[in-house]
Write a structure and sequence with these properties.
Blueprint (H helix, E strand, L loop, with lengths): L1 E6 L8 H12 L4 E6 L2 E4 L3 H7 L6 E7 L3 H12 L4
Antiparallel strand pairs: 1-4, 2-3, 2-4
Length: 85
């Protein structure tokens, strides 16, 4: 399992469209991927789960992945969350 702390740098935070893109990125991988914030842990491949977190720009989250492609999964998710689109 790989776990990494990340800061959401997307200008709009994780509202509907950015959440949909994040779910698409996470869904490319076989690994189980979870995002944690304020004692809530949700499946990064679940749009509804991710929306419940209500994450704003500048928020720090912990992302964990477990599986054969866990390193690549963490890398791609960090790349997306750190983009300033």
């Amino acid at each position: 399992m790989v776990t990494k702390s990340m800061t959401i740098e997307l200008q709009t935070g994780l509202e509907a469209r950015p959440v949909a893109v994040l779910v698409q990125v996470a869904s490319q991988f076989e690994s189980s991927i979870y995002v944690e914030h304020d004692n809530m842990k949700v499946n990064a491949k679940s749009i509804m789960g991710m929306m419940t977190l209500g994450l704003a720009a500048g928020t720090q989250v912990t992302v964990s992945a477990e599986g054969d492609d866990e390193v690549d999964a963490i890398s791609k998710i960090e790349e997306y969350l750190s983009s300033k689109q």
